[in-house]
């Protein structure tokens, strides 16, 4: 059974008595020991999707459609109590900014052992021993001393290591990492990501890596879901996606990043315009106002997902779409 | 290439910040944010300063902008020592050198309309009569790719990319020669970042601008800059024209930085063995002895622990501060 399967997920926000859809259709799946990257820019709905899986959507936000199947259990219908049981021991999360997600007035020991004592009913002594093991495992030297310290006494990279230790502490089956290294320097970023990938692989944990960095995806993920304007627009293995991107948005993203492995004067071809305002209704494909390939139908009808060899895309003018319609006509 | 005088010359720049403690705020030590940094930027080119947080790249930028006073060292602009400029010359200097900052939200006054933000320098320096200001603002918005109606908008009504365009338009209002871009594209989304990079490059060609470009994203810095200096803990570790620097880095730190950047190509990434650099950047208040990089360096020797390496040429135009990199023996 797939570890996590998200199907047609929709998330609404209610404001001033009006409801507005922020996530229209998120769907993807991830298995044990596998890394799925969700790629998208700010406002694409990637973080909201992760929060929905965690059951941590803020006030006014609600899941208004679709399913989140974790180990076969639909998280959109379970009780708050059951969701609380799953957090930490079933699904854990690593947040972007460890300074704001760690409690500044509690020691590392208290924050690291809290989950184990609560969920695994470990004694104080046993939890402490496990905490020392975890800190060693995430590469923190002198763990005895670190346990007594507070977040402000640690560097950014060290704080993120503590976050990873907390995420692993209750032996979850799935970890969601939301831009785990965006706030870190590049050498520290490389350390943290290799560590996270290695630990997830060793422990057979499924990893959902949310990022906007296409290089990180290429280095660490096996599968990718690209989100735009609250919708997953393309899904493929990392290799397929980079070799043969089907959606014009994915193509645009790949052409936008300067690369160290290409000649320096390779021109950047950015996607024109700006992402859509979620509060303004936009019929058809949400990318059509910025799309170089847009045709009439794109402004009228939301494109369906079509698949070819495990590569899925939602675009009226993609190569896969053309291949399929030619086949249907013949 | 002709050997003309560089537009910006920084010579042996040192910047220290006092560490104060106690009730009387006695000075108990010094953080050496920048020690002995020298470089020069020819007119019409882009010079990049890269490094991780705390390496002193922003401090160099602030010293160049005269936003802080260096402890020692000389900064020359168009041949003239900035520290010796009188009030009139300094005021002219502040027009000829402009800055674009990282966060366009905190560097634009939220209570001013775009039109006022862009026209303020024109009014302060009395560059244009009041009657021409509106047209000038429209012209500046236009070259930054924004329609004239944006003059009436406030920063909160714009997206991050649009705000950054306004920040650039404001810098261009003074018709500057040098623009200091301090992480100017770092906070932007990928597709927007490429738009702004292209805008900066287009403006440089059109207006003959010179850029001092500060960044931490190596691929962006490489793309924009002709010459790059890699900084570590307040010193330049290596400097060279972009192509040789990235193709054959000489300093182990530069090599580690380049290795740490993942390329958007799964096959390439799968085929390379990455050994991430261990440890973290030490505190500049308490730097290591000798070469600052030696505690993290895979090639460190006893000499590295004792003596500070000089920034020496290793190939023509390519300088590195490393004991383990063979220095260039001058021919003849």
Automatic annotation (TrEMBL), chain A:
InterPro entries per UniProt: AAA+_ATPase, ABC_Ni/Peptide_Import, ABC_transporter-like_ATP-bd, ABC_transporter-like_CS, Oligopep_ABC_C, P-loop_NTPase
GO cellular component, as recorded: plasma membrane
GO MF, one annotated term: ATP binding
Domain ABC transporter: 4-254
Coiled-coil segments on the chain, per record: none
Any one GO biological process: peptide transport
Superkingdom per UniProt: Bacteria
Family: Belongs to the ABC transporter superfamily.
Record-given protein name: ABC transporter ATP-binding protein
Protein source organism: Antarcticimicrobium luteum
The UniProt record lists the keyword Nucleotide-binding: yes
Keywords on record: ATP-binding, Cell membrane, Membrane, Nucleotide-binding, Transport
UniProt topology in membrane: Peripheral membrane protein
Location(s), subcellular: Cell inner membrane
TrEMBL record, chain B:
Taxonomic superkingdom: Bacteria
Membrane topology: Peripheral membrane protein
Subcellular location: Cell inner membrane
One Pfam family recorded for the sequence: ABC_tran
UniProt entry tagged with the keyword Nucleotide-binding: yes
Protein keywords: ATP-binding, Nucleotide-binding, Transport
Keyword ATP-binding appears in the UniProt entry: yes
Gene Ontology cellular-component annotations: plasma membrane
InterPro entries, per database record: AAA+_ATPase, ABC_transp_ATP-bind, ABC_transporter-like_ATP-bd, ABC_transporter-like_CS, Oligopep_ABC_C, P-loop_NTPase
GO biological process: peptide transport; transmembrane transport
Domain ABC transporter: from-to ranges: 8-258
GO MF annotations, alphabetized: ATP binding; ATP hydrolysis activity
Family the UniProt entry places it in: Belongs to the ABC transporter superfamily.
NCBIfam families named in the record: oligo_HPY
Name this polypeptide is given: ABC transporter ATP-binding protein
């Amino acid at each position: 059974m797939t570890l996590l399967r998200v199907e047609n997920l929709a998330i609404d926000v209610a404001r001033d008595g009006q409801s507005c859809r922020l996530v229209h259709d998120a769907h993807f799946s991830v298995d044990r020991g596998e890394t799925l990257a969700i790629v998208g820019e700010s406002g694409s709905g990637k973080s909201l999707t992760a929060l929905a899986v965690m059951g941590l959507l803020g006030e006014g936000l609600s899941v208004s459609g679709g399913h989140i199947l974790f180990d076969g259990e639909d998280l959109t219908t379970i009780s708050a109590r059951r969701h609380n049981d799953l957090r930490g021991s079933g699904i854990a999360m690593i947040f972007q900014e460890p300074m704001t997600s760690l409690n500044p007035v509690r020691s590392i020991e208290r924050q690291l052992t809290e989950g184990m004592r609560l969920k695994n009913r470990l004694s104080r002594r046993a939890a402490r021993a496990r905490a020392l093991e975890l800190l060693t495992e995430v590469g923190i030297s002198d763990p005895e001393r670190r346990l007594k310290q507070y977040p402000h006494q640690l560097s950014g990279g060290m704080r993120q290591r503590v976050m990873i230790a907390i995420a692993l502490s209750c032996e979850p089956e799935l970890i969601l990492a939301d831009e785990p290294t965006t706030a870190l320097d590049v050498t520290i970023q490389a350390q943290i990501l290799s560590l996270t990938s290695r630990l997830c692989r060793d422990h057979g944990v499924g990893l959902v890596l949310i990022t906007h960095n296409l290089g990180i995806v290429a280095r660490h993920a096996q599968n990718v879901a690209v989100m735009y304007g609250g919708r997953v627009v393309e899904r493929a293995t990392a290799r397929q996606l980079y070799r043969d991107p089907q959606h014009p948005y994915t193509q645009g993203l790949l052409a936008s990043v300067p690369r160290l492995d290409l000649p320096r004067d390779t021109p950047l071809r950015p996607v024109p315009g700006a992402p859509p305002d979620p509060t303004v209704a936009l019929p058809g494909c949400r990318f059509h106002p910025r799309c170089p390939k847009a045709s009439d139908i794109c402004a009228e009808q939301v494109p369906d997902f079509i698949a070819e060899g495990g590569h899925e895309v939602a675009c009226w003018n993609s190569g896969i779409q053309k291949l399929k319609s030619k086949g249907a006509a013949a | 290439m002709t050997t003309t005088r560089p537009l910006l010359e920084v010579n042996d720049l040192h910047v220290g910040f006092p560490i104060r403690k106690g009730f009387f705020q006695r000075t108990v030590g010094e953080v050496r944010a920048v020690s002995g940094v020298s470089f020069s930027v020819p007119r019409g080119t882009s010079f990049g300063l890269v490094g991780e947080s705390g390496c002193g790249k922003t401090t160099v930028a602030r010293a160049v902008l005269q936003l802080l006073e260096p402890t020692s060292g000389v900064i020359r602009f168009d041949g003239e020592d900035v520290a010796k400029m009188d009030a009139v010359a300094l005021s002219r200097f502040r027009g000829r050198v402009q800055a674009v900052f990282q966060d366009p939200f905190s560097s634009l006054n939220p209570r001013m309309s775009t039109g006022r933000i862009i026209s303020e320098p024109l009014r302060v320096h009395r560059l244009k009569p009041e009657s021409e200001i509106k047209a000038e603002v429209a012209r500046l918005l236009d070259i930054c790719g924004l329609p004239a109606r944006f003059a009436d908008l406030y920063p909160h009504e714009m997206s991050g990319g649009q705000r950054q365009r306004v920040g650039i338009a404001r810098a261009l209002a003074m018709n500057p020669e040098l623009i200091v871009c301090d992480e100017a594209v770092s906070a932007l989304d990928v597709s927007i970042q490429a738009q702004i990079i292209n805008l900066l490059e287009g403006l440089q060609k059109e207006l003959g601008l010179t850029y001092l470009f500060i960044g931490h994203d190596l691929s962006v810095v490489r793309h924009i800059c002709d010459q790059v200096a890699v900084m570590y803990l307040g010193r330049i570790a290596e400097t060279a024209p972009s192509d040789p620097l990235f193709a054959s880095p000489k300093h182990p730190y530069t090599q580690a930085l380049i290795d740490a950047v993942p390329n958007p190509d799964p096959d390439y990434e799968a085929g390379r063995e990455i050994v991430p650099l261990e440890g973290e950047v030490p505190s500049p208040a308490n730097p290591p002895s000798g070469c600052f990089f030696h505690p993290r360096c895979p090639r460190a020797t006893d000499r590295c622990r004792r003596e500070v390496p000089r920034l020496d040429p290793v190939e023509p135009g390519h300088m590195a501060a490393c004991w383990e990199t063979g220095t260039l023996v001058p021919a003849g």
